[in-house]
Inverse folding.
């Protein structure tokens, strides 16, 4: 019995070294966990510090000194572990993320910050691990100076008679505004963001973003009502005109695609509950834009009758893509384009020597105008330092006289081939003609000062001499052919028709310009305005 007890005691004593080894290993692993936890916490601390430093530097005009000071304030004071670089960031998804930032450059728009930090181990080295770990943080912040601008026409010189006829046809009601009403509406500013905030509950959207609202269609009656709610107090004339339109369209069922009318730009993903600086657009641009968008799938036809002095009759057929556009708040490189428009203007003119009337079909094709935001200079010391630069290209145009085939106005189709038009048709004789005048594009850089932005000034970029006359160059290129009975000794029919058309150039110009302005276009030119800026922002980028 005594021997067996001694044996059991000997067996118990043999386990003690094994337990000691296991306990040492467990303590080592526990220590390793503590050390790795310290490394993880330091990694997060370093990354937070470089994020803050990059954002601070970007907000301060990409200042390396500000980045260094921010890191120093957060306890990173070792110069050899710190790298601050200002440079140019290109937000292009087709470029690998690592290649989007280029150090230096003439106009830096971003700051990159890198910091390395050493974490000494307390337990890992006891079990043969490293005495320290090196962790690093890397962040790039893009300076987010934003500007909003608009492209199109403010229509302050629109012909009231033609504008009333066209808007009445588009809206399905009677519009009888005076030129003073149109000018008042053109000068009335509407906050586009407030408009979208007001649209959300009407559409049944809750916790929506601006982009969510823009994806929807809104009844044109609601559009008119919201324009009134989101606008400045304005003049008595502008309020009366808005109230008249709202009442006239109260039962209208047509709807407007909001994304074709407005955009929120960089604020699109933001919730509509987030208010801020207003995004201004003019009321008349929104009204005419909504009218055209409500008829986006239709070819609009309008008979102006005998309203134009010097012409017997005028008929208009057009297909319009988009009217006045606004960019929303966007960064440098943001662009805005107007959509193509095609229209056919058919004009009947008193014939020479009491002959039958002359028929002149004029086909007009407008390519887009485009504006690109090239510079946003924000005020750091004085408000007067603010400025915005735009590069504006006016769209090329094509005018022609000829027989326009069916379907030629469809925007998706190619330019039609025009056969000679029969301008005069009389017994035994006819006169046909065809002409084409391409108008080139032009580009210009435009800078808006702080005073320009505050006053809402509109700048016009135009080509030389295009806007002076449309009918003149077109008629001078008209190739007339007399067919049938010729009476050269009695009447030069071709010359008489040419002289009659030339005398009608002025009223023809009046019709063409009035139609284009009502549609939001000035041929050969583009009206641009900067409607606001948001300065001092910064965002972290890849």
């Amino acid at each position: 019995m005594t021997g067996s007890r001694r044996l059991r005691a000997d067996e118990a004593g043999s386990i003690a070294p094994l337990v000691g080894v296991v306990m040492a290993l467990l303590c080592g692993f526990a220590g390793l966990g503590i050390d790795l936890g310290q490394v993880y916490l330091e990694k997060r601390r370093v990354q937070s510090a470089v994020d803050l430093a990059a954002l601070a530097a970007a907000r301060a005009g990409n200042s390396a000194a500000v980045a260094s000071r921010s890191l120093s304030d957060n306890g990173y004071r070792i110069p050899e572990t710190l790298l601050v670089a200002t440079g140019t960031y290109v937000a292009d998804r087709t470029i690998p993320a690592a290649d989007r930032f280029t150090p230096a450059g003439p106009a830096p728009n971003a700051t990159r910050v890198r910091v390395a930090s050493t974490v000494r181990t307390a337990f890992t080295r006891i079990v043969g691990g490293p005495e320290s770990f090196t962790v690093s943080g890397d962040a790039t912040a893009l300076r987010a100076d934003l500007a909003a601008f608009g492209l199109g026409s403010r229509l302050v010189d629109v012909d009231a008679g033609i504008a009333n006829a066209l808007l009445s046809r588009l809206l399905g009601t009677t519009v009888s505004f005076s030129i003073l009403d149109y000018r008042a509406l053109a000068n009335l500013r509407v906050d586009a963001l407030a408009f979208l905030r007001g649209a959300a509950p009407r559409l049944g959207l809750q916790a929506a973003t601006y982009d969510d609202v823009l994806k929807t269609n809104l009844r044109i009656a609601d559009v008119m009502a919201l324009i009134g709610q989101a606008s400045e107090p304005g003049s008595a004339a502008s309020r009366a005109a808005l109230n008249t339109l709202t009442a006239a369209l109260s039962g209208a069922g047509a709807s407007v695609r909001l994304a074709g009318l407005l955009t929120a730009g960089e604020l699109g993903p933001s919730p509509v509950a987030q208010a801020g600086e207003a995004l201004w657009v003019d009321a008349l641009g929104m009204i005419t834009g909504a009218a055209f968008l409500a008829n986006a799938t239709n070819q609009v036809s309008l008979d102006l009758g005998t309203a134009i002095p010097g012409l017997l009759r005028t008929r208009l057929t057009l297909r319009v893509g988009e009217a006045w556009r606004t960019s929303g708040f966007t960064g440098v490189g943001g662009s805005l384009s107007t959509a193509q428009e095609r229209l056919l203007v058919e004009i009947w003119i008193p014939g020479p020597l009491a002959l039958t009337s002359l028929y002149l079909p004029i086909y007009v094709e407008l390519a887009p105008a485009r504006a690109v935001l090239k510079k946003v200079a924000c005020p750091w010391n004085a408000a007067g330092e603010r400025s915005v630069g735009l590069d504006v290209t006016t769209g090329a145009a094509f005018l022609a006289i000829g027989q326009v085939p069916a379907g030629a106005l469809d925007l998706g189709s190619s330019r039609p081939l025009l056969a000679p038009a029969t301008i005069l048709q009389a017994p035994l004789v006819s006169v046909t003609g065809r002409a084409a005048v391409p108008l080139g594009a032009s580009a210009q850089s435009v800078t808006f000062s702080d005073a320009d932005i505050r006053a809402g000034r509109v700048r016009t970029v135009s080509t030389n001499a295009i806007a002076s006359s449309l009918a003149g160059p077109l008629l001078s290129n008209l190739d007339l052919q007399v067919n049938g009975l010729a009476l050269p000794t009695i009447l030069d029919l071709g010359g008489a028709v040419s002289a009659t058309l030339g005398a009608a150039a002025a009223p023809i110009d009046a019709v063409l310009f009035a139609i284009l302005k009502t549609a939001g276009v000035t041929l050969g030119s583009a009206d641009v305005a900067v409607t606001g800026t948001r300065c001092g922002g910064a965002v972290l980028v890849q």
Summary: The chain has a mean pLDDT of 79.
